Amino acid sequence: GKRVHTMNYTTCTDLYLNIHFEQQPDFNVTLSQIKLMIMKSLLDLHGQVGSAIPIEILKHKVFSDLEHYATLRIPQKELTKVWSAVTMLGSYGNTNCAICVTETPVSDLGCT
Amino acid sequence: LFIRKRIRVQGENMRFKSRYLLLEFSFSSEKDRRVALSSLNEKHLRHHIKESLLSLHGDYGLACVLQSLNVKYLNVTTDVAILRVPRDHYRTVWSAITLMTHLQNSPCSINTIHIGGTIKSCQKYLIEYNYKKLKNMLESSSTGLEKKNLRLKIKEVLKKDSIPLKV
After folding, report:
1. Cβ–Cβ contact A44 with B under 8 A
2. Which of A64, A104, B76, B142 has its CA 20 to 30 A from that of B33?
3. CA of A42: which chain B residue's CA is closest?
4. ipTM for the whole complex
């Protein structure tokens, strides 16, 4: 994200969210499906305004079949909306899933 | 020594703070207007606004506002409504109303003319707005008879209201 330096403090325009995504054993979930799930949760909770928030998935690791670790980039203003929508994501279609936000670093150096 | 401090507990003011939006409907044709306004009710208008809020701002946006979202005044002949909204979230309701495209299945656009803290301020503004409209109609009317009728109407309006107009 861009950093804007003013006299006394820096204002970062983007934040990064490290999320831990868990799912049920039978379904293989791809990265684009995770993004779609997050957007649908935003649409339910925060409407069209929420689903228009630009979210990028930067890094992605699959640990076991059931757990994914990913890093999202979001604008700083929309932190509460995205965090709440990501936390409220309980199911997608037939499967249940859960997302836990582990860290919110300010720069992408702080992401695993 | 046991020192007792007097702690002043600040109680939060539980008054519901609100804003009143003055709305004006504009339809694409006279036929649409008649069809839509024939069955328009305060309840129907509130339902349409709730739908628009739900689609634009989602569950959270609707829930923030629902507690004190009321239609206080609806005039079907002059296409005017006054809506009460909570003060903290009046912009979400304002945006949802502006982006509404249909009312009772006919295409319509709702314009927010004025936002006031009380119903009385909205009424004051509405009187001045109507007066300006009548003045514009007077300037743009072609025949002498229309002008005469309009001038009489304006005189009536000025006499009736005790609220002094900024003429």
Report:
1. yes
2. B142
3. B58
4. 0.78
* Paired strand residues for A68: A21, A62
pLDDT digits (tens, 9 = 90+) for B144-164: 777 777 777 777 766 665 445
**What would the two tokens of residue B134 be?**
């009548």
Q: DSSP label at A96?
A: E
Q: Compute φ and ψ for A74, nearest 5 degrees.
A: -135, 155
Paired with B22 in beta bridges are B82, B114
Task: Give the residue among B140, B116, B142 at the shortest CA–CA distance from B127.
Answer: B116
C-alpha torsion B85→B86→B89→B90, nearest 10: 40
Local confidence band at B167 (pLDDT 50, 70, 90 cut-offs): very low
**CB-CB contact of B81 with B48 (8 Å):** no
Mutate to test the interface with B, among A46, A82, A88, A89 (most CBs of B within 10 A): A46
What percentage of chain B has pLDDT greater than the value 70? Answer: 85
pLDDT in tens, B54-100: 999 999 999 999 989 999 999 988 889 999 999 999 999 999 999 99
3-state secondary structure of B69: coil
Measured between its terminal Cα atoms, the distance across chain A in Å is: 16
Could you tell me which of A23, A19, A20, A29 has the C-alpha nearest to residue A97? A23
Taking the C-alpha atoms of residue B82 and residue B113, their distance in angstroms, rounded to an integer, is: 10
Q: Say if A68 is an interface residue toward chain B (CB within 8 Å).
A: no
Across the interface, whether the CB atoms of B55 and A50 are under 8 A apart is answered: no
Any idea of the CA torsion for A62, A64, A66, A68, to the nearest 10 degrees? Answer: -20
